[in-house]
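Quick one:
INPUT:
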């Protein structure tokens, strides 16, 4: 049975932990994201639901692109697609080793749950290809006009960064007004992301709930190499 309600995000503890338990049904995840709540836990734990304060976000129009990345973009070494290989992207995000991390937060159950969310037209992937090989990508959740970023991976230098810049351009063209980065990282800060308070983030979420849902496959969208 899907979760019918969550505690108010302002009840989260100082680390951002809001609730424990529940399930990862599509309706539960959609409800959670509507209120800026996301699951993050390790294999063997109960589901942990989070609402960090402050929150790192990026407005698409505030994207910063470094001089070196602009040079790479001008060379157009990659082909970028959307929703062509969601299952492969999330599996790469799950299995890639990351510096400073002992494991992954993408559990087996989360992998299955987000695949279902993708089939429901809510979760989307961006794929970066070098010729016919998938070399990078990312995935996240789109509700209203907010994109909630989840994870990214790269097999060669700059592939995921290239895909992210292309994603931001896509979101801006589709009139998205915010990207939720969830966690404060130097990597996302380098793209222009900034911290806002939970109260400000909740206000933006309330505004977002008044906007039309942006559900459905992004499969037909692509970028030439």
């Amino acid at each position: 049975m899907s979760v019918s309600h969550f505690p108010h995000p302002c009840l989260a503890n100082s680390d951002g932990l809001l609730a424990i338990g529940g399930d990862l049904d599509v309706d539960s995840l959609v409800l959670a994201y509507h209120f800026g709540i996301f699951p993050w836990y390790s294999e063997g734990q109960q589901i942990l639901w989070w609402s960090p304060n402050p929150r790192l976000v990026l407005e698409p129009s505030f994207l910063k692109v470094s001089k070196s990345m602009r040079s790479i973009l001008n060379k157009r070494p990659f082909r970028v697609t959307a929703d062509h290989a969601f299952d492969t992207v999330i599996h790469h995000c799950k299995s890639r080793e990351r510096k400073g991390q002992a494991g992954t937060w993408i559990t087996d159950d989360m992998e299955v749950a987000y695949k279902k969310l993708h089939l429901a037209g809510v979760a989307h992937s961006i794929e970066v290809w070098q010729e016919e090989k998938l070399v990078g990508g990312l995935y996240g959740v789109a509700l209203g006009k907010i994109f909630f970023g989840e994870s990214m991976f790269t097999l060669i230098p700059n592939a995921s960064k290239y895909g992210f810049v292309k994603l931001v351009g896509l979101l801006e063209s589709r009139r998205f007004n915010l990207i939720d980065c969830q966690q404060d990282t130097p990597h996302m800060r380098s793209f222009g992301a900034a911290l806002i308070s939970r109260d400000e983030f909740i206000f933006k979420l309330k505004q977002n709930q008044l906007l039309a849902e942006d559900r459905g496959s992004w499969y037909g969208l692509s970028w030439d190499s």
